[in-house]
Amino acid sequence: xxxxxxxxxxxxxxxxxxxxxxxxxxxxxxxxxxxxxxxxxxxxxxxxxxxxxxxxxxxxxxxxxxxxxxxxxxxxxxxxxxxxxxxxxxxxxxxxxxxxxxxxxxxxxxxxxxxxxxxxxxxxxxxxxxxxxxxxxxxxxxxxxxxxxxxxxxxxxxxxxxxxxxxxxxxxxxxxxxxxxxxxxxxxxxxxxxxxxxxxxxxxxxxxxxxxxxxxxxxxxxxxxxxxxxxxxxxxxxxxxxxxxxx
Amino acid sequence: xxxxxxxxxxxxxxxxxxxxxxxxxxxxxxxxxxxxxxxxxxxxxxxxxxxxxxxxxxxxxxxxxxxxxxxxxxxxxxxxxxxxxxxxxxxxxxxxxxxxxxxxxxxxxxxxxxxxxxxxxxxxxxxxxxxxxxxxxxxxxxxxxxxxxxxxxxxxxxxxxxxxxxxxxxxxxxxxxxxxxxxxxxxxxxxxxxxxxxxxxxxxxxxxxxxxxxxxxxxxxxxxxxxxxxxxxxxxxxxxxxxxxxx
Lengths: 247, 247
Known about the structure:
Two copies of one chain form a homodimer.
Chain A: H1 2-11, E1 34-37, E2 40-43, H2 49-65, E3 72-81, E4 89-96, E5 103-108, E6 111-116, H3 121-128, E7 139-146, H4 166-178, E8 181-185, H5 188-197, E9 201-211, H6 222-243
Parallel strand pairs in A: 3-9, 4-7, 7-8
Antiparallel strand pairs in A: 1-2, 3-8, 4-9, 5-6
């Protein structure tokens, strides 16, 4: 999170008094890290829907009490890609659960509820428009499936346990591709539904680390992986610069 | 996690070469922290089932390759209590989902699967037996409900959004109490099911920070909260000492 904050500080020309540095507002003792960089809050959310949902509840309350207006929230992160070269950036056009439905399911007071996981189409397209032909990677619109684990729900065979075959896995991944899914991660459906519910524009912008149709092992070096992870930050950095009239 | 590791080092008389200290095997760059203290691994698991499930898959693989035998895994943590004084330690006798069923539900290759969330009864009773009449707190057996968020699924009214009334919340919490639920946390059902599936004995030992039947705000001071959080560690530390023949 500090890397993103430092990057945005440079990109947005945010000045910090001499001798001072960006500080983690969670003070390293909280479960999330948070940096304020001019008009941008950079916040970590942990892995998976439950961790993200706690963060969003608390962030929404913070933004309300701080009287923030016209807020936009963008999740940047990593994902497994489907049918895309590793290093491709996917801007989510629709967040789907593991039944490929656009809903975030919760059990409230013992009863199942489904909240529509709607993302702002205009925001997604505006972010997509911040890619450049000069980029050394592609940025695409695609559907994103949100899973509740990394191994079985994402059809990986290399967890501690597994109940399906390589063929069943590949058939499933091809079904996802045919349904328009271009990447899988672990937060999008709750992110979309929670932002939609409080009427805050939200977007999900994730780089793909692997093409699941060709294999599950990440073969890139650490250096290449770090460069991949900076790609969504570069695209989103440009979008924020544009919004702030810095270009 | 470092605090637990240091505590167990002292309790288990684990010697460390002069001038050295316990080190985080995740090196601070990984998403989890891990310390090895003699025969005990202390590992953090993040918040919620998805984060825990990644950790357990990877831990099970590690234990397999390290040829570990007769492993026991104990989750220690915090929870919201139901009908118990804050600071009470609950040893989980049964882990339930938010429908109050003893199952961990996953969607694998698009199909719903339910895995029994069975904990080892003998282990729970042995840990319960490590409480002492001299303790300044009670340790009890009880059912634990595992929720996928902190606010709405746990019937809290103080999230960013809420769709039920104080009365509906209290009726629900009383229903949980009547069903034998004594605390709510966010990992137990997957923890139990995953340990059961690979035939590793598992236990969940959590302190309650609040009595939800009397209110949701934690009113204890930071110092008291820290002492509460050490209580499950004390009980589990005694159990490990006993198993190692140190008592």
